[in-house]
Amino acid sequence: MDELEAKIEKFLAARAFAVVGASDKTDKYGYKCYLCYLQNGKTAYPINPRLITILGNRVYADLKSLPERTDSISVITPPAVTLTVIDGAIAAGVKNIWLQPGAESTAAVEKAEKAGLNVIYGGPCLLVTLGYHEG
User: What are the distances in angstroms from CA 82 to CA 20, 44, 103, 123, 126?
Assistant: First the structure.
């Protein structure tokens, strides 16, 4: 098993996941990523301070608002926002972060790694790894 596979295995071993940047727009990756977790029978919480529900499920404003701690989060935000997400993740005790394509930045990766987080970036998307299907 190579290093990336080990990081992904550690990420996916979590009991619950959060999707930071979740969307209610079906063409957005924030929607597809959240739906992909659900399609695979995973417990997942959508996070977006501007929404109330996605797919009939409550949306949370931030990681602190979740009903339980999550060790693994997927991030689908613009790189400038990702830095703030990293700060919130560190404060919330998150252990694993998967920066989906387009969310990563050198500063965010460095900050997360310096804090000792398992960071996945620049490789496969969660949708490919778990197997997303439309519908």
Answer: 9, 19, 6, 17, 17
Report the C-alpha dihedral over residues 102, 118, 111, 63, rounded to 10 degrees: 80
CA-CA-CA-CA torsion sign (120, 121, 124, 128) = positive
List the chain pLDDT tens, one digit each, 135 residues: 799 999 999 999 999 999 999 999 999 999 999 999 999 999 999 999 999 999 999 999 999 999 999 999 999 999 999 999 999 999 999 999 999 988 999 999 999 999 999 999 988 889 989 988 886
Backbone torsions φ then ψ of 44, nearest 5 degrees: -140, 145
Superfamily of 3-131 according to CATH: NAD(P)-binding Rossmann-like Domain (3.40.50.720)
